[in-house]
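Methods, example record. To illustrate the input and output format used throughout this study, we show the complete record for Mitochondrial thiamine pyrophosphate carrier 1. The sequence lines were provided to the predictor; the line carrying structure tokens was produced by it.
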Amino acid sequence: MSLSSTTKKGPAIAPQSSMPSTVEKQSTSAFLTFKDYIARPTVASFVAGGVAGAVSRTVVSPFERTKIIMQVQGPGSTTYSGVWGTLRRMWKEEGWRGYMRGNGINCVRIVPYSAVQYSSYTIYKELIMEPGRTELDTSRRLSAGAMAGITSVVATYPLDIVRTRLSVQTASIGKLHVDRKHAPGMWSTGLLLYKTEGGIVALYRGILPTIMGVAPYVGLNFAVYESMRELLADEKGNVTALGKLFSGAISGAVAQTLTYPFDVLRRRFQVNTMKDLGFQYSSVWDAVVSITKKEGPFGMYKGLSANLLKVAPSMASSWLSFEIIKDLLQGK
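The corresponding predicted structure is encoded as:
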């Protein structure tokens, strides 16, 4: 009998394939599809804009609340005097939480606001770009920025008015008497506003002066920033992190200073129905005349010092965060 006939045969072993399985192929394909999708200019701008907004607002939250309180402090009220005096009083009365009051809703608002603003700017740039060019001229940058500003305001305005109410309701202004320990939160404030002050109209109160200010502000912000980047770019078109920070700070300061009176009007109208503040206006023009007459020519610039202390680090961190996140998403 031969050896081969007496040897017990074991089970057949299938040869190992070096080719990836169907599941692995599908997973890899899905990842590459998602990576390509997230790298699209509009999508990358949307995500990066949202992150940039949250970072920038949290960094300057104390100055943001200080600005709002000074803006809505009515004629004759000196409870909050100056930036540092306001910050000290806030700390004394409310502690560190006072510096962050309203920042939660501000981040809830600013993430979609910034995401919509940056992504819509990218879309508008593509729509109005001249054939054969890769960059907009100054006038088109202003136009694209203005349209992006209007789009983002309309999309998120109810969150902005709730944020303003949260920032003001526990401050020592006029006859406000909200218990600081039991002050209503974001959802309670929004629901109360909706139920008692006119429904959906109440959630958009003050949007006209807001748009009047935001359109030129955002337009200037984008136009100045991109112009500064071009000035600071090297021969390959690259800009350092410091250059981006500087460009963001300058663009924010210029845009805010030139459009600041509209921001004061926006805040006044957002709290216009809070009778204990000592003022009520029937129209934008009535507000301008009343503020100028009762509070002097600088009444329209109340809180500007706090705003300038806020806007440079805010816009610098916002633009830098935006550029870093967008480059990461696009694999640059």
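Annotations derived from this record:
The longest helix spans residues 138-168.
Residues 230 and 237 are 7 Å apart (CA to CA).
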